[in-house]
Amino acid sequence: MIKTAHIGVGISGQEGMQAVLSSDYSIGQFRDLQRLLLVHGRWSYHRMCKFLRYFLLKNFTFTFVHLCYAHFCGLTAQPVYDDWFSTCYNLLYTSLPVLALGLFDQDVEEHQSLHSPKLYTQGQLNHHSNWISFLFCVMQSMYYSIIVFFIPYGALYDTVRQDGREIADYQSFALFVQTCLIIVMNAQMCLEIRNWTWLNHIFLWGSSVAYFAATFILGSFPTMFQFLGTARNCLSQFYIWLGIFLSCLLCILPVIFLHVILTQYYSTINEEARKPSTQTMINFSMLS
Predict the structure, then answer these.
(1) Residue (of 255, 259, 213, 251) closest to 235 by Cα position
(2) Residue 11: in which H helix or E strand, if any?
(3) Which contacts (CB < 8 Å, 24+ apart) does range 121-129 have?
(4) What is the DSSP string of 246-283?
(5) Which SS3 state, helix, strand or coil, does residue 27 take?
(6) Mean pLDDT, rounded, of the chain
(7) What is the pLDDT of residues 129-178, one digit of tens each?
C-alpha cells in the first residue's frame, strides 16, 4: 500500500510503527485523518496550484518581453534587461513572495473546509491544475508582456527630460521595462494572496525595496554595473512613474474585472464556502 500510494499516511501505534516509518505523514488516531485530508490536504493542493501558476506567469512574462524586443533589434540575441536584473529576477526579486504564497496561503478557513467537504473534490477533478488554466496563464503573460514593453516604448519615443536632454536610450528603456515588470508582478501577487500574514508583507514589499536598493547601489559602481547613473536619471522623471502606474493599471484592471464577473455570475465552491451561512446571519441579527 505504501509503495503504490501517491502519499503515504501512517497511524502511530504498536502495530503501525513500520508503516509510520515508511509514510509521508503520521497521525495519532483515525479521527485526525479527516483534518489531514479536508483541511491540510486541500490547502496544500490549493497552494501548489497557485505557486505553479504564478511561477509560470512571471517567467513567461519575463521571456515574452524578449520576443517583443527582438522585433526591434533584428531578432538578435541582444537582451532587453541588464545582466544583474536577469540574474536576480528569480533569485531575489520575485522568489520570496511566491515562496510565502506556497507556504502560508489559505483560500478558506479551517472550519469552512470541515463544513464543506465538497471542496475536497476540486483536487480530485483537477479544477485548478489543467490545460485551461495553463493556456489562460500563457495568454495572461502575453498580454502583460505587451503592456510592459509597449507602454515604456511609447513613453520614451522621441522624448526629452525636463532639462531638455534626451532620455530615449537603451539603458533608460531597459530600466523602465524591468521596473514595470517588477511592479506588475508584485501587484499580481497581491491579488493572488488570500491569507495575508506578516511574512507575506515582509517578502512582498521587501522584494520591491530590494530591487530599487540594488538598482541604485549597483548604479554607483561602474566596474560592476553597466547602467551607471541610469536609475537616478530615469526614475527622477515624473512621466516615468506615470508610465509605471499606467502599465500596472492596464495589467491589473482586467484581472479584477474578470474576477468580479466570475464571482458575481459563476461563483465557485470556494466563493460559496466563504459566504456566511444563513444560520450565522440569523444569529448575528438576533444579537444586534
Answers:
(1) 213
(2) strand 9-11
(3) 121/269, 122/42, 122/45, 122/46, 122/269, 122/270, 123/41, 123/42, 123/45, 127/268, 128/45, 128/46, 128/49, 128/50, 128/53, 129/48, 129/49, 129/52
(4) HHHHHHHHHHHHHHHHHHHHS--HHHHHHSPPHHHHHH
(5) strand
(6) 81
(7) 888 889 999 999 999 999 999 999 888 877 766 665 666 678 888 889 99
Nearest one of 176, 170, 168 to 149, comparing CA atoms: 176
Q: Which amino acid is at 52?
A: L
Are 216 and 98 spatial neighbours (Cβ–Cβ below 8 Å)? no
Question: What's the pLDDT tens digit per position in 210-260?
Answer: 999 988 888 777 666 677 777 888 888 888 899 999 999 999 999 999 888
Asked if residues 92 and 254 have their Cβ atoms less than 8 Å apart, the reply is no
Q: Which among 153, 149, 157 has a CA at the least distance from the CA of 178?
A: 149
Amino acid at 237: Q
What is the grid cell recorded at 118? 465538497
Per the confidence metrics, is the pTM higher than 0.85? no
Q: Which residues are CB-neighbours of 5 under 8 A, at least 6 positions away?
A: none
